[in-house]
Design brief:
The complex is a heterodimer of chains A (152) and B (299). Chain A is α+β, with helices and mostly antiparallel strands and 152 residues long. Chain A is 39% helix and 22% strand. In chain B, helix 1 (2-44) crosses helix 7 (146-180) and helix 7 runs antiparallel to helix 10. Chain B is globular. The chains are: A alpha+beta (152), B mainly alpha (299).
Chain lengths: 152, 299
């Protein structure tokens, strides 16, 4: 009986994995914990151009926005910090309605105020670069301001 | 005929012994993971409460808001108690197996409620889910004989098929790019691994001056690496059913994880550790007296 149940669990996990391909988009989301394992099915930078996002904080001494590199904070490791920032940025850009955008922006302000407690003015910037050029010159990228936000 | 029969018996016995030790190792690794998880929670609890947003049904149902420290500790302690029970008292208790899988799921749900559902622990979760009903007791498994052998192979296949899925998606992606998106970079392109490494490292603001870049810029190094990686992933399911090559294949998969960390900053730490402890051929390195030990214990 227990062996049969184990075999059934294996079959369920395989079906769960297949179902995950179709259900991982809204409104269903992943049939947790089964994953479709569609990872790196194409190389990053496959369009030969890449958009990255960074926070620029306002420095009142220099009167300029300064780029903030990815960093580890007291409450966020590198991954958690990067992915939460990217997740909120994407949600703001792709918000389905104005209210959703306001909510996400509010969260972004809370997040940035927490990570950069000494700053009150933030700019989210899209950095567009060509990988084969940036490898030669690290500063070779274009910037576009996505939005600005302020600590309440 | 007699020789054949005794060979099968010893094969069943060594598999049952391997499976028993692998389970103990899994429980020890899980204990280590739980300790790290508790340390992570010390960070998480200091984050602004508004940032906690469950991003899947499990989180929304079982952990809709940031848990308080006592609630977290109750769940965490349940996981610890389940490990202790399974390790020292009864390795085949379904209730504690279920509780362990559920609490690990819940503890992950807390971590994943910050806009980032990492897929790194899925293999870990899967290993615990697939073990809920599977008996570990050596005596029981030897008595079950062929049924145990078949179930063990399916259990391993259930875990290793995740790698095969990954390779299937890469093959689909490759054909899609070659035939329908000409001009875009596919994985067999000379620049593919180089581009992937640049973007991946730059996304963490890692300086792009390491030796890995001129190495991957050679083109053929990345192409050979991709083919190696694809074959290792694709063959994982075959290795599940072929005991002779299984551990060698596990070492190749582990190597591919190491290369991914080195070149692309793709940090799968727990998975290679689990692969090694779950599939290590313990019975080969233990004396016959040690082999008897678990059998005596299980009585």
């Amino acid at each position: 009986m227990r062996y049969t149940l184990t075999k059934t669990m294996v079959v369920i996990s395989i079906f769960g994995s297949i179902a995950s391909v179709f259900l991982s988009t809204k409104p269903f989301n992943e049939p947790y914990p089964f994953f479709h394992w569609k990872l790196y099915s194409q190389p990053l930078g496959w369009q030969n151009e890449f958009d990255d996002f960074r926070v620029y904080t306002f420095d009142s001494v220099t009167n300029k926005f300064e780029r903030q590199a990815i960093k580890v904070t007291k409450t966020f490791n590198e991954d958690d910090c990067t992915y939460l920032f990217l997740n909120l940025t994407n949600k703001i850009i792709k918000a389905e309605n104005a209210q959703q955008q306001v909510d996400c922006k509010q969260k972004m302000v809370i997040f940035l105020s927490h990570v950069y407690p000494n700053n009150s003015k933030f700019r989210v910037v899209k950095e567009t670069y060509k990988p084969l050029e940036i490898i030669k010159q690290a500063t070779h990228y274009d910037t576009t301001t996505v939005f600005e936000c302020f600590r309440n | 005929m007699i020789q054949q029969q005794s060979l099968n018996v010893s094969e069943i016995e060594s598999k049952a012994i391997n499976f028993w030790y692998a389970d103990k190792a899994l429980l020890i690794v899980t204990l280590g993971w739980l300790i790290l998880n508790l340390m992570d929670f010390q960070q998480i609890i200091q984050r602004p409460i508004e940032l906690f947003t469950p991003n899947n049904w499990f989180g929304r149902v079982f952990c809709p808001t940031l848990p308080t420290y006592p609630i977290f500790l109750i769940i965490w302690s349940t996981a610890i108690a389940s490990i202790a029970w399974l390790f020292f008292k009864n390795e085949d208790n379904i209730l504690f197996r279920f509780l362990l899988a559920f609490t690990i799921l819940w503890l992950n749900a807390v971590r994943w409620s910050y806009g980032f559902q990492s897929h790194v622990p899925h293999f870990f979760l899967l290993a615990h889910c697939l073990k809920i009903f599977f008996p570990v007791n050596i005596k029981k498994n030897i008595e079950a004989g062929k049924v145990f052998i078949l179930t063990e192979k399916l259990f391993v296949a259930g875990l290793l098929v995740t790698y095969t899925w990954s390779s299937v998606w890469k093959i689909i992606g490759l054909f899609n790019k070659i035939f329908f998106h000409k001009g875009e970079t596919h994985w067999l392109n000379a620049n593919a691994a180089y581009l992937n490494a640049i973007v991946s490292n730059r996304s963490y603001d890692t300086p792009l001056d390491s030796w890995i870049f001129p190495f991957l810029a050679q083109g053929f190094t990345g192409q050979i690496g991709f083919i190696f990686f694809l074959m290792v992933q694709l063959g994982a399911i075959y290795a599940a059913f072929n005991s002779k090559i299984r551990f060698a294949w596990i070492l190749l998969i582990t190597l591919s994880h190491v290369l991914n960390i080195l070149f692309f900053q793709i940090y799968f730490y727990i998975t290679p550790i689990l692969l090694l402890v779950l599939f290590f051929p313990y019975s080969r390195f233990l004396s016959s007296s040690s082999k008897l030990k678990p059998q005596q214990k299980s009585r």
